[in-house]
């Protein structure tokens, strides 16, 4: 297997956040952070791509300084772009879809959620982001214990999958992609605005190789499209420490 070395090619290691560098919605461990900054950064450029907005990415990755610690930061699948510490662009869903269709969709989502009963429901069922809607049947203001419980409940009852199937039938005329990620929610975004969207901003950056690390790489997961994209070498991981293990196998730190 070809390894990355200090004297080697121009490399970018691009990471998902939840389940890849951190546990779901948890801050990055110091050990993971230090490995990336001290061991990986000398041999590779660093990038992040997340479905979450910048505020959430910063909370998990140690603060706003993340845009200086990583060469590229792509919140909201790259609809917002940071390069070398500066915001260089953004796109938004309301301009793309139109307010009328967007409201019809949101109204139906809220109606649908009113028809199902879960062990608990909390608040913030629809979170509006620049490039997507994040929909959580249990509500994003649930506690960590409630979050963990819903994840197990959803595995058994497929609440998110059933809701997505319903939305696809209800809105066949809106070109939306639905992507399950994390423990409690799924993302809805214009087709093509998945995580592979960010790659257009890397095509002319002179990289010989881009490695992408993600945990939700199977069909329907929010890392799938970028994982299979021919512009990257995809690496499926099972958690933050598996990410480090695979990096150690990849990197020549001599």
State the strand order across the main sheet.
6-5-4-3-2-11-12
What is the structural class? alpha/beta
- Give the SSE order as H and E letters: EEHEHHEEEHHEEHHEEEHEHE
Low-confidence spans: none
CATH superfamily placement of the largest domain? HAD superfamily/HAD-like
**Termini separation (Å)?**
16 Å
Query: How many helical elements?
Result: 9
Name of the CATH first level of the largest domain: Alpha Beta
* Morphology: globular
In round numbers, the mean pLDDT is: 94
Characterise this structure.
It is an enzyme of class 5 (isomerase). Alpha-D-mannose 1-phosphate binds at residues 25, 129, 140, 147, 185, 187. Pathway: Nucleotide-sugar biosynthesis; GDP-alpha-D-mannose biosynthesis; alpha-D-mannose 1-phosphate from D-fructose 6-phosphate: step 2/2. This protein is α/β, with parallel strands linked by helices and 254 residues long. The protein has two domains: 4-90 and 194-252, Rossmann fold (3-Layer(aba) Sandwich); 93-190, Hypothetical Protein, Haloacid Dehalogenase-like Hydrolase, Chain: A, domain 2 (2-Layer Sandwich), CATH 3.30.1240.20. Helices cover 33% and strands 21% of the residues. The chain has helices spanning 30-40, 54-60, 66-69, 93-97, 99-114, 144-157, 159-170, 224-227, 240-250, and strands at residues 4-5, 11-15, 45-49, 72-74, 80-83, 86-90, 126-128, 133-135, 176-181, 185-190, 209-214, 233-236, 251-252. A seven-stranded mixed beta sheet has the order 6-5-4-3-2-11-12. Strands 7-8-10-9 form a four-stranded antiparallel beta sheet. A two-stranded parallel ribbon has the order 1-13. β11, α8 (224-227) and β12 (233-236) form a beta-alpha-beta unit.
């Amino acid at each position: 297997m070809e390894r990355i070395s200090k004297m080697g090619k121009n490399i970018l290691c691009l990471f998902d956040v939840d389940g890849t560098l951190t546990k779901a919605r948890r801050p990055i461990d110091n050990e993971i952070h230090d490995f990336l900054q001290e061991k990986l950064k000398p041999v590779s450029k660093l990038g992040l791509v997340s479905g979450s907005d910048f505020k959430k990415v910063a909370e998990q990755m140690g603060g706003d300084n993340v845009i200086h610690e990583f060469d590229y930061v792509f919140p909201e699948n790259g609809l917002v772009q940071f390069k070398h510490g500066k915001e260089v662009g953004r796109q938004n869903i309301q301009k793309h879809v139109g307010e009328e269709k967007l409201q019809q969709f949101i109204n139906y989502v809220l109606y649908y959620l009113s028809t199902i009963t879960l062990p608990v429901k909390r608040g913030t069922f629809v979170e509006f982001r620049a490039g997507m809607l994040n929909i959580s049947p249990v509500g994003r203001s649930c506690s960590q214990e409630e979050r963990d419980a819903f994840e197990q409940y959803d595995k058994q009852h497929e609440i998110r999958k059933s809701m997505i199937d319903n939305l696809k039938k209800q809105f066949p005329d809106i070109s939306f992609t639905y992507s399950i990620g994390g423990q409690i929610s799924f993302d809805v975004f214009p087709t093509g605005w998945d995580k592979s969207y960010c790659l257009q901003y890397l095509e002319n950056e002179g990289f010989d190789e881009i490695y992408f690390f993600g945990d939700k790489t199977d069909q329907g997961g929010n890392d799938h499209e970028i994982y299979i994209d021919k512009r990257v070498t995809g690496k499926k991981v099972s958690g933050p420490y598996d990410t480090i293990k695979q990096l150690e196998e990849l990197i020549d730190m001599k």
